User: What shape does this take?
Amino acid sequence: MSTPDSAASLTAPQPSDPIWQRVELARHPKRPLALDYIERVFTDFEEFHGDRAYADDSAIVGGPARFDNRPVMVIGQHKGRDTKQKLQRNFGMPKPEGYRKALRLMKMASKFGRPIVTLLDTPGAYPGIDAEERGQAEAIAVNLREMARLEVPVIAIVIGEGGSGGALALGVANRVYMLENSIYSVISPESCAAIIWRDAGQKHLAARALRLTARDLLGLGIIDKVIGEPEGGAHEDHEKTFESMGAAVRAGLEELAPLTRAQLVDDRYQKFRRMAGFFSEPQ
Amino acid sequence: MSWWKRDKPSVQTPAADRTVRTEGLWVKCDECRQIIFKNDLEKNHQVCPKCGFHFKIEARARLELLFDGPFEEFDKELRSTDPLEFVDSKPYKARLKQMQSSSGLSDAVISAHGKLDGRDVNICALELRFIGGSMGSVMGEKITRAIERSIAHREPFIIISASGGARMQEGAASLMQMAKISAALMRLDEVHVPFISLLTDPTTGGVTASFAMLGDINIAEPGALIGFAGPRVIEQTIRQKLPDGFQTSEFLLKHGFLDAVVPRGELKAFLSRSLDFFVDRA
Assistant: This one.
């Protein structure tokens, strides 16, 4: 969980801190956003709206598109570029209706045998009164369980900030990739620092402790692949980033193509079943 | 500056002398502030006999309340290996050691099998005193194994939640336990074995946003704090005071996220009746 820009502190991190630099790159204002990838890595995107129960949440966009001229469902968390967009997109913090819309679209794809690509980029699920009233926790929980049941290939890619359960709710995939300068964490460095040191200004220490970079998570076996970014970060060369992502999606879909519906469900189940088994037990 | 200066210090009574010692016979209710005879509280399963306030109780007491008699424990010795080598105010390894020796548990959950009203069930009870009942790799594994046993033996499964959410000290590994357990619950669902989620005070974060909300029925004790984001996080985000009764069991019942709010004393009978609906007795 995190709050938008809650870091009101004077103790600035050292500019040379490489981990904190990555956190800043992951949140860079010129970094490509979900809709940029959807428009440039995919073609013929058609946005579908609404959760059929309450509203349309514009923090999550999704709908059918084509990839290499084959139909896929693509769903992404979109933060918005300027202030007006950011407000409209709620800074990429989805509400329950966003998660329910995403699940509706994923089930649709599963029904018709179309692969799913999700793009994760959120500071976290929205922590607000209305979101709680409409069951933020329930919406995320149901997505986790139901994504495990999807009978099509699912690829999840963290493109910026993978903010805790709010990101994971689109992340139960057969393959999980991260862009080189993206982050994925159980809690934002600011919130973590606020809990441990009672000072959000220690965020750079928290970022280091949390091991939230793509390389760290690859090492821990939590993700399958790191997608390289251009020198200086994705914002330096959007085209090149789109190409790298395209290549990763292509390879992922090819790997999963031979699997039957039942094998896809089992592949995903086993992946998470084995994941993060950091425990010991006496024999 | 005051007008008059005291020459001698005022009479200071040490804090310890100001309270009357009653040898722990009496306690004050956190809710109604009335004095309760401790025996009465114990007989009433730690529920205030005057106002019905539910005191927090330990995981083991929860299990004793629901099982007919002795129960078998599983995976008692599973311990976290501290994947991140996390250090906050003290190293996570030291924190775990201290918690293990003070609680007698290896982590924040007890996984048990026994009889509830004569019926074989698996129950996982979360221990709030153990790093806030937080979920890391050990809890994820113990609960997943309990689900797998429930599938293998077709025995109903119950989780009693009391937790602040995912365990920060295990980073993304904790986060992934949410997906792991939820996927296992998908399999339990597919074989039509019942899962009942009981939420107790408090249940928040990644625990609410995974298994605690995925029961065939979700029930809670009265007055429990239940939510995704904690109240402080929400207040800081929206910069408003939260309404009274926000994120309580009763609030969730009103908004449609709980099947029932059940007082502690009626839990066992409620669970037994629900299970009777789900599956015939052998």
Summary: Chain A touches chain B through 58 residues (CB under 8 Å). The first strand of chain A starts at residue 60 and ends at 67.
